[in-house]
Amino acid sequence: MALASAFQWEFATLKHKLYIITGAGSGLGKYCTDYFSKKNKVLAIYNSSVIKNKKNLKGKKINLEKKTDIDNFFLKNKKIINNSKSITFLGFATYKEDSILLNITEKNLKKTFNINVFANFYFCSNLIPFMLNKKKSNIIFISSTLGLLGDKGISLYSSSKHALTGLMKSITTEFSKFNIYCNILSLGFFKSPLWYKLDIGTREKILKFSPSKKLGNKEDLLNAIIFLEKNSYMNGRYLNLDGGYGLV
């Protein structure tokens, strides 16, 4: 039996816990993909960094700006999703381009909201029907404390992250009775490639104003996700994982 067909058979016939992760090709999204695929099934959506199929992992390149690509993803993976015993969606995919308000173009506006907001909307509208008959399902949007606070040059990014609040609250209000939980995990600064792209002066300034005086690590992130999955009373809320940075 060919590797691809064997992979499809395993996904389609076994009851499993399923993770669907966007932004899975790099950074914290990739780390979560690698971790959760050790013991669970993972459908990993990437853009440029290719994810190769493994025993429990199926990678799929999707243009998150195209609704048809997202719809086709669910059509092609209907059996895999339907046969899962529980589902967790992790929305790591994000787009950020710094620009002051007066320099924002229509192209940047559309791309930011297509990826940061509308893609999450389309994923949820496709995914929730599968979640209705599960014991417990989790939708976790990944946000940013800095984005929620706002700063110079990030009006688009900040606006898009705030827009997720309305989507989270609506999902919570409409679907909690079906044991579908929706929360936002708001991240501070982590030991990741994005952190090391900042210049040293900016890094020192951030750590100076952070009450905990340190960065988050990958284990902190995993513990927060697992907490949200296991908690039966945390719903429709923000979980700030930022070392207290949001306080200042």
Rg of Cα set: 18 Å
Strand order of the largest sheet: 3-2-1-4-5-6-7
Distance between the termini: 58 Å
Structural class: alpha/beta
Shape: globular
Secondary-structure element pattern, one letter each? HEHEEHHEHEHHEHHHE
Spans of at least 5 consecutive residues with low confidence: 1-13
Number of strands: 7
CATH superfamily: NAD(P)-binding Rossmann-like Domain
CATH topology: Rossmann fold
> Hey, roughly how much beta strand do the residues contain?
15-25%
What is the count of helical runs?
Answer: 10
Please identify the top-level CATH class: Alpha Beta
> Based on the structure given, which CATH architecture is correct?
3-Layer(aba) Sandwich
Biggest β-sheet, characterized?
7 strands, parallel
Count structural domains.
Answer: 1
Which bin fits the share of residues in helices? 40-55%
Mean pLDDT metric: 89
Write structural notes for this entry.
The protein is of the alpha/beta class. The protein has a single domain, classed as Rossmann fold (3-Layer(aba) Sandwich), CATH 3.40.50. 47% of the residues lie in helices and 19% in strands. The chain has helices at residues 3-13, 27-36, 67-76, 78-82, 106-131, 145-149, 155-175, 193-197, 200-209, 218-230; strands at 16-22, 41-46, 57-61, 84-91, 137-144, 180-187, 238-241. The chain has a seven-stranded parallel sheet, sandwiched between helices. The radius of gyration is 18 Å and the shape is globular. The relative contact order is 0.12. Mean pLDDT is 89; it is low at 1-13.
